[in-house]
Batch of 2 targets.
Target 1
Amino acid sequence: MSRFLARIAPQLVTLAAIVVLVTLFFPDFIQISFERGRFVGPIIDVLKRGAPVALLAIGMTLVIATRGIDLSVGTVMAITGAVGAWAIASGYGVVPALLLAMVAGLACGLWNGILVAIIGIQPIVATLILMTSGRGVAQLITEGRILTFNDPAFAFFGSGTLLGIPFPAVLWLLLAVAVTLLMRRTALGMLVEAIGINRAASALAGVNARVLLIAVYMASGLCAAFAGIVATADIRGADANNAGLWLELDAILAVVIGGNSLLGGRFSIAASVLGALIIQTIDTGILLAGFPSEYNLVIKAGLVLLILLLQSPNLAHTWRFLRDEAMRRREPEPELHTRKEIEP
Amino acid sequence: MPMLLTIRSLSKSFPGARALDQVDLDLRAGEVHALLGENGAGKSTLIKCLTGAYRRDSGEIRLDGAAISPGSTSEAQELGIGTVYQEVNLLPNLTVAQNLTFGREPRRFGLVNGRAQREEARRMLSGYGLDIDVGRDLGTYSVAIQQIVAIARAVELSGKVLILDEPTASLDAEETRMLFGVVRSLRDKGLGIIFVSHFLDQVFELTDRLTVLRNGQKIVTEETARLDRVKLIEHMLGRELAEVEDAERRRTDPEAKNRSELIRFENLGRSGLVQPFDLAVHRGEVIGLAGLLGSGRTETAELMFGVRAADSGKARDENGDVACGNPREAIGSGFGFAPEDRKTDGIVADLSVRENIILALQARRGWANPIPRAEQDRLADAYIQKLDIRTSGADKAVGDLSGGNQQKVVLARWLAMNPRFLILDEPTRGIDVGAHAEILRLIHQITGEGMSILVISSELDELIAVSDRIIVVRDRKHVAELTGDDVTTGAIVRAIAADDGAHK
Amino acid sequence: MIRTLLVTAAISIAATGVSAAQTIGFSQIGSESGWRAAETTLTRKEAEKRGIDLKFSDAQQRQENQISAIRSFIAQGVDAILLAPVVATGWDSVLEEAKEAEIPVVLLDRQVDSSDDLYLTAVGSDLVHEGEVAGQWLAENVGDQECRIVELQGTTGSSPAIDRAKGFRNAIEGKDNLEIVRSQTGDFTRTGGKEVMESFLQAENGGQDICALYAHNDDMAIGAIQAIKEAGLNPGEDIKIVSIDAVPDIFQAMAAGDANATVELTPNMAGPAFDALEAYMADGTMPEKFIQTESKLYTQSDDPQAEYEARKDLGY
């Protein structure tokens, strides 16, 4: 447990710092009230609005742990949202609509997984194929329009509440816990890390790297399906052109802010989800602070850059070095020429 | 003779370990000076302090009498200290000329002057007896030539001290000879050369003096000619050689042939890789596989373990066919395989020692059936103790261990599986003398428990020491089998060198 | 698709029987939005109504596809070309080729940077005017009441976002009771509209302090309506909503009382274009260089349900 806390400490501190920063500009940020059977407040909005990226980040963490990347998740959101909305609009009912959307997400993941694990295409290229072509598939399903529906049961997945908490927030929280338990209570987590660090050695040790890789991309597809359902249910319509647009990049960013290496290996889902919350807090903070919209991207980029700089191992190294240096100065060693450089 | 480089009382600590403790070293101009020691003795730390990759904690380095404190490799280079590593750190996709002049290309009108660049490159290579096209990509040349190009570049840039870190590890005998010629001519030009190697023969052949490090301390500096091999190994190990010799003693077991058969490979082969061969493996037997690099040694192992698919033949035991079409099947059939290239195919560097040890076992049990943590700890601790794996704990990343200990972790992974047939490809490559002896001892120990082993090695002494019989591979074909008293260096060399048909 | 082909074929046969049937090429940008799909549908319908043989080409957002489509129209010897240009620049040479072949070109919906003698005319809406119509409606509707307005802008830097913001401000200028208190981009999407509206509601006392919403397109307004409902307020009453485009779904919202007004950006650009072409071919009448389509205002009193029914099959 203490090891878990130590792992996510940088993300927790960053999140706290961003919350403090936003509160400086918008003092009501941390206020939460209870109205009409639900909690209301900017923080609740963050938990809810951050759901798509948090859900995507869960799957993306696993893919990145295998030294892969999944650029198609934004598009898969559009496809699964379109499938779900189509099923609802065609009168299939909520459960079949959900199942169809999930099957669509798994199918997209299977496609990516086969390209990567069996045909051997580099993940960034393999998933780029679906990223660019998949929106066309979604548009075919929606016939190019925003496919709207008015089923309150389906809309619940976007705007409903459970115990006063927005359902999307409950969903990502439960999924993150479930996937973490699945990874850590079984040997899956270690095996995923092993193939990410050294696929050849793992395969020689008898790890079924192919099946694991396909499974990981399917998990990412399923997470994207959940995100697609949330996004579609939220606006009660499937917008094939805009649903999930560029969210794959936010998801990757969340994983990176979560301190997971793009080179694969050790991963933490909790840290990735915190990364997603950090991004959403910045987004919501910018909206609440009331800056002109021209500044949105610049402010976001600046803050993200700052976070990544502060988290970078090189900087931590420099910091430790400078600290040691300062201590050494107090007990001088005259023959040594001190230099402010660090090892490469 | 004046000292070119003097190191006095150099110390360097890492969290939890004192890597260098008051080390002294003198390097003369015009000498080749061997730096020896087991893995973890402090050789690489010393070199990294010299080249500016690490900052020393205390001590003094003087070059030509002046105190220096390089803060980076490029700074060390400017001062006159150049380094060439085992893995050539040049860019294979640039031409030889581009590599040689990288960062200081001759320019005309602000553009790189290709012709002048090539001329400059030819001039730099002129003293090295190399007649190569400097306009070709570096990667198209052999590792030996790449090494020499790297040396030429290092000498050009620095020109006083040249550090060669395991330069011959991936060279064959002819290439080594060529490299030594280059090193000698540089010595004669007055460079001071520090030579790091595990190959003691080469140390005796090439170097003028040597320094032995052990546990971060300097043990001795001596004229090479005044030491014999036994004395040197004793310095390096810090113990009497009797132990080592005991482990390496030739095994003579007259019963070897009478042991019951475990697995028989019949007509196993793949065109273009290894010609079909028959091989019977007996219980508790060690089979040595000898042959030159590229002769089909490793490929034989890969066919047996299913790393590459065979296009003919099969394996069988007393119960019928044995599946070994891919590694998972082979593991299921009770095989194990510790591959030649530990770093790329053996260890999973960022995982812990514990996780590396249980990896194969866990893969066989399936993801849904995790090995309980207590059981993992028990296994890891047991093998750390049994194989004497030097690590600060089971949860240390295996990539942080020395080569010999990494090899032991890979061995532990397979021993934990309790396979019936274990293939070890170059189990002692690149590891120090002490670990070397331990691994050979281990091989004896585990065959004593009934496991059968196939060992592949380039070191004939080692092969002879451990094997009950030896298969010689030449030109992708199993050409000879030596047993009993026939197992001698001479016989193996003759079989490797023989024309087709001489040994049948 | 097949049906359309058959109909077009039937008409062209029928038309050849009557007189010199016109063949007109239409290079469309693509089908990136519902509005664009509706424009395509209406152009086909207008052509069908007038007995024109329409040759349709979908450029899938690529200028080179449009240029090669126009060259192919010229080679086929069409009587006129409609072009909805994907970008503003790079049209000079292909427009000159059309001019040399004496084929008039009419630009639909968007402008180009080329000299205006290279095309016959351009049909389009005035984006600033659309904003003005929306602003005027709001100003008249609230009268002298104090009104704090929030604005959902289009994609930052896009010309509709800039012009629709400008027109709205022109209309409310000098009316001291009207004030835009918050303005943020919703990227023209429903999700964006909903998310930004949620933050507006949070920032403005749970929405109590907001009197009206001006959205640069209907989709953002539809997203915002859901946010307002979820905050426990009544869109259309507690917060007045005016937006632009007149897509079918906003009429449904108006029929339900959730939205108040919308300004139409008509997808029927082809009608005026064909009118101008007919006049030009009949007696050489030169049209104006810019034909502005009507920016018609629809409110809840304009039978929104009927408007919805009329539009829902246009491909929005």
Target 2
Amino acid sequence: MPSYATLAPFIVKRPWLHNLLKPVASWYANAAGYRQLGLRFDDLILEEDEDVLKAIQRLSPKESYDRVYRIRRAYQCSVSHKLLPKDQWTKPEEDVPYLSPILEQIKAEHKEKEALDSLTVIKSH
Amino acid sequence: MRRSLVESTKKKGLIESVIRRLLAVTENLPEMSSFLLRAFNHTKVKLPSQTFTRQLSTTIPLLNMFSRKALSRGAQIAARRQACLAQRRGYAAATATVTATSAPTSAPSSLTYETADVSGIKVATRDSHGPTTKLAVVAKAGTRYQPAPGLTVGLEEFAFKNTQKRSALRIVRESELLGGQLVAYHTREALVLEAKFLREDIPYFAELLAEVISETKYTTYEFHEEVERVMHLKQAKLANDVSALALDAAHSVAFHTGLGSSLYPTSSTPIKSYLSEHAIVDYAEAVYAKSNIALVGDGATTAALHRWTEQFFKKVPASPSGPLALNTKPTTYYGGEQRTAHPGGNSIVIAFPGSSFGTFKPEISVLAALLGGQSNVKWSSGFTLLSQAAATAPGVIASASNLAYSDSGLLTIQISGAAASVRKAADAAVKALKGIAEGKVSSESLTKAIAKAKFDALEASQSGVSTLLSAGSGIVHTGKPFQIAETVKSLSSVTADKLKTAAKTLIDGKATVSVVGDLHVLPYAEELGLKV
């Protein structure tokens, strides 16, 4: 479950709606501008959060290194008011979630813990 | 009056038929409900059904209790009476032989494990008819078998972590709800996953143990967040434990590799290149195979354990797979000396080749009992030679024991305390041992030592950790449990002469001396008069 309100699961479940909105979504993702800075969507997740910090810690060394590299490069672009050359833009197929699955896993852990903490034992005799 | 009697018998008949129905239903209930539980856990269910499964899990034991206690009381009482009779007879036989000749004491039958092969897994059970059960998976995976340092410890720490079916947290919470306790520990030869629980919960814990050995996920983040963290804490604790360090050093000097590899890697051991979650997965594949484990149940009926083993241990592979092979080099005794400077205390271990489980030497056991150390009575140093030696050097703790392994053993004398006192006590201990080799033992002390050795062996096999462990590691090593109690017979045959020759061969052979602490004061083996 993502950390923000979203209709995406609802839409993905319905193929006709998904096919209808997919071009719009792709247009929006490109228009958002983060791909032109060489970022992935998961790089935009707010870092100032305990769960996100934990998720970042659980990244593999390579993923973690690449993430830092992308963010530094984007920051440099932002400072110099330039976009990356077009061949370095993030391609749509590269823009895969790498952090949010881990984040979901952590949230599920919390949820399970809460459920177990507030458990009521019902005796059946 | 008469009419009411008739009515009551009618009612009784009715109740009986109802009870019979209920029994028929409840007999299959644990199986059914645990199947349901599994099904619910497996599919992602939302909260209401989760509460249902929870409710279910808490009702299983209650239902079982109900069915056992109230419904089949007659049958139960009968069964218990029979069992009691058998037990009493066993004890009576044992005491009779003791009082008659003080010769061969046979172990009571309730102390021996029955072994059987259940769908490829060796299962040992012993039923003492108590209200609780201990169930353990004993794997041939102790530190002597690990192909690289730290793997056994890593595998031990991964016990009861996330599995394919449920999270580590859920495992803990569910066992807490049933009042169970889960432990994982290792020795030099065995890795043990143990569960202690109320007798009626056996299906749940049998399933849990099977799940842990065949379906643990070994995730990277758990390795970094839990396993490594706990390992560092334990290493920090071990770094200050002088006597453990000395004993570990004695093993490494005496046996080099295999049994000599460290029981717990110290913080200075370079394990980083060997220990990772991937290496642990490989080791788990090599270790958790049907041919390499034994399931030991203490306080469980044979029928029940066999039934649940058959049902739940299906997924355990029949033979080891994966790229790693266990280090199964036979043990050789080398001997030697090792001195380690340590600011945290002083400890000395003097060791000799001892008796193993495979070839039991009764003289060594008696020798260990005669050297002793801890007094068994209050306000007296006791008859044992080490406690008398320790009495002359205040503040010293001295003890002798025979550490038995499957193919080798180590007779150790361990002394710790203030440096000067340790030196004095070590001198006295070696003198005492030489005294035994010269035959200076009174027949009275010998009798006492034999009696003590017998008591120690029988007590150890009656209760405590060592029963599960020795039964289990006996099975994985030789195919039958090490019945400590069986050895009691041969202890009576030890004579003063045999003890003398045994001690003499030890003194004449190569000793193992490991010293940890203030090396300025602590003695060399040569100063003690030992050959290394």
